[in-house]
From TrEMBL:
This is Isochorismate synthase. Residues 101-370 form the Chorismate-utilising enzyme C-terminal domain. PANTHER family: ISOCHORISMATE SYNTHASE ENTC. Pfam families: Chorismate_bind. Signal peptide: none annotated. InterPro entries: ADC_synthase, Chorismate_C. Transmembrane segments: none annotated.
Amino acid sequence: MLSDHFFEQLKAQWDLQLPFVAYKKPDTSTVKGWLQKDDALHCSRDFTESGFVFAPFDSQRESFLIPFENTALLTHNFVASDSAEYAIVVTPMNTDQREFHVNLVQKGIAAIKQDQFKKVVLSRRETVETTHADPIPIFERLLNTYPTAFVYCWYHPKVGLWLGATPETLVKIRGNRLNTMALAGTQPFKGETDVIWKDKEREEQQIVTDFIVAQLRNSMGDATSNLKMEVSSQHTVRAGNLLHLKTDIALQLAPGTKALKPILEALHPTPAVCGFPKDKAKDFIIANEGYPREFYAGFLGELNLKETKTRNTNRRNVENNAYGVSKVVSNLYVNLRCMQLKDSKVNLYVGGGITKDSDPVSEWEETVHKSQIIKRVIF
Ligand SMILES: C=C(O[C@@H]1C=C(C(=O)O)C=C[C@H]1O)C(=O)O
């Protein structure tokens, strides 16, 4: 498949209204395209399938799958264009939205002070009108703008079209190795990554780390102690015009651990996008945000793909060369900094973590900053 035709082929698939996903993982130059040959809607029953999964925030709802089998796979070597600098777009503020969000955050803080939960992530959906809601050029602009993000464009005629550039990994599994991250705390990037974080942001991020570590231990049947986990210190990472606090977490799974479902149930949704404790925060979100999150703050990515690597190129081990080492690999990301295209309308989804010390107006401003990340590739 000629890579020059990559974007034309995506466009042809979109024109035919057939399902597809195109994506680029962080820090690689390879963009992959999966084109489904018919418009069947496949669901993932238990995350044992092999394919590209698209899962909602609310795990009670259906997760969709583009199966690996019977799908045309394309690859493209993406070279960012130097001239690609898209201006930050500042659209007029909607005062009703502002008031609703500030009230929502105040309600969240009141619930925290009444000990209903310790942290809740509150979000909003913003709708913008555009005359050029054409997904493929928007996808190309996302690729140009966010080289360190997981950038994607996902479509199914029975579900809709979603695009995004997320900084957050939910979980990566390669053979017996599991990697994840705790990402929370936000401040604008002003040319410097060596910045000061307030205690409030450090605590908010620590809630996410503690949750992930405890949930992984419990789901591995090791509530007490000796699972060897590598937990980094908190450090600053850049995501477009924002900075976040991040902790990397890694562990070696017990040999033979195959099922992803208990791991996903343990982690998703983490307090980075839902809150803590999970169920109480989730109930509050569903009852109060006033719109359905659908796939925002859900997860997506490669599920149970087989990766085969040739064992050894050393001449002495030439007999081993015939055997590839095969591993099952999943790379799943949290669906943040995302949008949904609907005719000439674009729905943007943005949120932030609330703790007892949050300031409602600053939280509104944080969502405004986050929405600019998305808007700059639309107009
Ligand atoms: C919820 C979002 O982002 C999450 C919330 C963050 C925060 O509260 O500071 C930071 C990164 C993400 O984990 C979003 O971008 O919509």
